[in-house]
Amino acid sequence: MHTGSANFYQYAGEVPDKVAVIEASGASVTYGKLYKVANRISHALRDESLQAGDRVALLSSNTADFLALLLGAEQVGIKVVPVNYHLTAPEIEELSKPVEQRPSGDLRHRGVR
Q1: 56: which strand partners?
Q2: Per residue in 77-108, pLDDT tens?
């Protein structure tokens, strides 16, 4: 586990009832809740046979769940690749291809900015 997340887990253990995230809706999520969700996610990722070094694409807006997935994946050693939710389906499909299968060149020439 990296130092940043180790600090998070230590702090969450010390002040579980303190607000960690305020959602755009105004709902608040405590450190304790974020800690529990991140742990559940790490176990779910392992249950799916994902392991350290694997990559997972995440299409999400900025939410507490996004943060929990980043923390949970880091527990397992999985790299999260955030995908902007404003991308179109063809753009996401292009990004999901292995690098070797993608056309080379400047993406701006294909309308990707």
Answers
A1: 80
A2: 999 988 888 888 888 888 777 766 656 554 44
